Amino acid sequence: MIVFENAGNIDIRAIKTFGVNAKENKDSAIGYFGTGLKYAIAILLRNNCKISIISDCTLYEFGVSKTMIRNDNFDIVTMNGQELGFTTELGKDWEMWMAFREIVSNMLDEN
After folding, report:
1. Cα 12 from Cα 27, distance rounded (Å)
2. Is the alpha carbon torsion for 2, 102, 86, 96 positive or negative?
3. Beta-bridge mates of residue 73
4. Which of 35, 42, 55, 108 is the most buried (most CB within 10 A)?
């Protein structure tokens, strides 16, 4: 098990919403587009890793919901059983180390 821990809390809406870049100190923030953590979650799930986030004493567990859209199968990313607006296809060309880089970057940006 790998654990990343910091003292800050993430607004969970930042995970559920594309394009949210609401860092406290935008001048020094690593993140810019509001996509990195979503990519990391998708990559980890695609590689059969378990991922959860505890923020403000609430546990958020991520998983997948298998579905077919048109004639293609997709794994939609879920958080506590609720479908989010992206699939595990996000970051399809990224490598595993890039997911870890995004998690660390988010931790640094969230204090």
Report:
1. 22
2. negative
3. 68
4. 42
Instruction: Report CA-CA distances (Å) from 86 to 6, 34, 70, 76.
Output: 26, 13, 16, 6
As a residue count, the chain comes to 111
Long-range contact list for 15-24, CB < 8 A, 24+ apart? 15/41, 15/53, 15/60, 15/79, 15/84, 16/79, 16/84, 16/85, 18/85, 18/86, 23/109, 23/110, 24/109, 24/111
Structure tokens at 11: 């607004």
pTM of the model: 0.84
Burial readout 22-35 (b: 16 or more C-beta within 10 A, e: otherwise): ebeeeeebebeebb
The predicted-structure confidence for 27-38, as pLDDT tens digits, reads as follows 555 555 668 889
Tokens of 1: 């098990």
